[in-house]
Write a structure and sequence with these properties.
By secondary structure, the protein is an alpha+beta fold. The strands form 5 sheets. Strands 1-2 form a two-stranded antiparallel sheet. It has a two-stranded antiparallel ribbon with strand order 3-4. A hairpin with a 2-residue loop joins strand 9 and strand 10. The structure holds zinc ion (4 copies).
Length: about 150
């Protein structure tokens, strides 16, 4: 046993009978407190920059915010990434056409706005194209009718 254990919290020797091991460091029992609210940490604690935090404060302080709705993303939540930005699954949509982007979809992050890869050439999304298609279908039907009439 190393008798000269140094507390990772206050950096003083631990001479107490009780010491706590948190991740790789040893701590005075009384030093295992949340660096933000000062609560004693009993069940779970989170280590960041050599400071301990309770779950609530850790989530508040170091939460990753969604690039879409700017709300915190809980560590357990599924996320989508675009460059350095992280998004809720539900927020990972194109900011122009609102299409839902999938993993592996090509997308662009421009000035904090997520754009689908189609954005480059669907600036004014071609409603015309779709209408044209419908018209074509209509024409075909008419042609068939005509043909039938001819028969
Ligand atoms: Zn200490
Ligand atoms: Zn706390
Ligand atoms: Zn979001
Ligand atoms: Zn789009």
């Amino acid at each position: 046993m190393d008798q000269r254990a140094v507390c990772a919290g206050c950096h003083r020797l631990i001479t107490d009978r009780f010491l706590l091991r948190v991740t790789d460091g040893l701590w005075h029992e009384e030093c295992v407190r949340c660096a933000a609210c000062g609560d004693a940490l009993r069940n779970s604690c989170f280590l960041r920059d050599r400071k301990l935090y309770c779950k609530r404060d850790y989530a508040d302080l170091f939460a990753v915010c969604c690039g879409g709705c700017a709300e915190a993303i809980s560590p357990a939540e599924l996320v989508m990434r675009a460059g350095a930005a992280v998004f809720h699954l539900r927020c990972f949509t194109c900011s122009v056409c609102s299409c839902r982007l999938q993993t592996g979809d090509r997308c662009v992050l421009r000035e904090g706005q997520l754009l689908c890869a189609r954005e480059d050439y669907h600036q004014c999304k071609s409603v015309d194209e779709e209408e044209e298609e419908e018209e074509e279908e209509g024409e075909e039907e008419e042609e068939e009718k005509k043909r039938r009439r001819n028969l």
